[in-house]
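Re: the 237-residue chain
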Amino acid sequence: MLISPIRAFDDNYIWAIQPVAGAAAVIVDPGDEQPVLEWLHKQQVDLASILITHHHWDHTDGLLPLLEKFDVPVYGPDNPKIKGISNPVGEGDRFTPAGLEVNFSVLETPGHTLDHISFYATDLLFCGDTLFSAGCGRMFEGTAPQFYTSLRKLAELPATTSVYCTHEYTAANLEFAAAAEPDNKAIKQFQQQVVQWRERDQASLPSNIARELEINPFLHARNAEEFAQLRQWKDKF
């Protein structure tokens, strides 16, 4: 399986999933249709289906324009605010996106938004703005207990699971992580690696659960109260 980042806006990644090179792609969180169309044209491939993690504009604004050009199924939260979802899914649902032979499980991961879901298949996690490398999303709609529970759910996935989140926030997140855990050697080591990647204009993603369990202070919170304190600190950092 091939998974490619399509850059959008200042720091978004729209993920393109293909079973093999040259196959039609499944697109995750198309906040802007233009880079998706350019990527499809460059790769000379069709669009097979679309996955949506939550309702924020930078994850959904390209959805309807893409549907004007491609008649494909769209899997996403059961939220009427998101126009274009043909296949609403929720916690515990399992489905195989059109264009793939991989079965995905749906995990409800509220916190960043109330409608946020994540898509998990063996060793693959598409988690939108819930879990970032060395960080997590801002708490716009959910509560600290909700967000803490969502992160624990993701942290319990197999250590080998690749984490495909949707923003290039890793360097900034690591600065905060180093301040929160100054004695954490894994954070310092990974900072050096990320600097090298970014100097070469390479993506710092995907991460993986094993790495996040080492470097992500939000996964080290022992309860919702500790998580809330970290999140408030990060918001002001």
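The first strand starts at residue 2 and ends at 8.
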